[in-house]
Amino acid sequence: MQHPRNTPRSWLSAKLPFATGALVVVGLALVGSSCNLDPVNRAAVNALGPERDDLYLPESEFHRPGEPCATCHSSAGPADSQFVLGGTIFWGPRNYDRRVDGAYVRIKDARKTTKCFVTNCNGNFFVRPEEFEKLTFPLLVSVERTQDPYNSNSPRLAFKEMGGHIGREASCATCHILGLKDFGSPGQIYLFADEAQVDQAKVPVTVPCPNPDKPTIVRCPEDRL
Amino acid sequence: MSATKLAVRVGAALAVTAFVASGVVALTASTTSCASSPDTDRITAVIQPDYESYRLHVDRYLNRRCGTLDCHGQPGRAYRMYGREGFRLYTVADGGLISGVQPSTPEETLANFQAIVGLEPEEMSRTMALANDPDLQEAEGLKRLIFIRKPLRLERHKGGPAMAEDDPGYRCVRAWLAIPTVRPDGSPIPPDQRQKMSPLAIANCQQAESFP
Fold this sequence. Notes:
heterodimer; A: alpha+beta; 3-stranded mixed beta sheet; 9 strands; 17% strand; elongated; B: mainly alpha; 8 helices; 0% strand
């Protein structure tokens, strides 16, 4: 005779609470992994609006120039890749369409480690955690653009050094707010003080971006072999 | 029901009602009688640190170290700083001040000073009351200030360690707060009779403001 505790029915009733609990945990994990549970970050991501596929290749390294990268590209954000720093360089203080390709963004951290990154054809640059290990805030930043970024010995066309430092923010555009130059934002990051100077300098603008005929520059002169 | 039982029940009901009513009356009386109308003439005196030394030597360091737009140069901070490279003091009169453009204004320096003092006015008073004994002040006063505790990481600071006890910035701030602004008897020392920061302390401030 089978003991009552060993019948299939009693076994099921004994395991049912555990099975239900496990299902709830798995369900929560699935929901948590697929959705952004941070309401502040979620609101910030939503506020960015949809991608503009008429201006750039969506969800590529060229997308959303001038927008705060780390809103999405951080542990709180929905992007797959994370950045410890990222931003966009513009030629002038107002024109959104003139962005600087091949600019050298030099970053010196609190440990006095200096690394250089290059903007792509849409003016974007970004630093992944593995590209600047132990990055320690605050940071000093300068931006240089030579006349011909493909040539390591090309003379300087424009140079700008940040007046202050970056205290702890990963997105340049959090403070350098696109289209807003006022008491709380110095506006987009630019190399020439006004657009007339940009006209005079006859700066190159890479069109189309990406341009299949022009290889992407990924290293600053000091990092080239 | 007998007359006796009825009387007991009525008596009990009356007693409960009276108890509740007295409680309500007491609660009402206690809440209404304790609330006096605000005294608009009342002020809380704060023993403030020396403003002149702050203006000349300390503000530039604190502004440069703490006042960037991604740290204390933003409206969300209790300790809010204004200055050229960060957040600008916005008033109707000088609404044209733009971050990173015009030099810092005297009004911004004053606002920064007020932000430090207003952060914990009572603790600042206690700390400044000890300024006649700098060792005692450092031991018992300075590290009660949240403005010191946070950058030294004695308390959680989102911006990480912003000062260390052996760095010129901390020495600059310590020397500034060690200038007595009241006498031991509590009477105020007029600004023109106060001690000045030593050349060494000024050199520390200058070194600190060249950060990083």
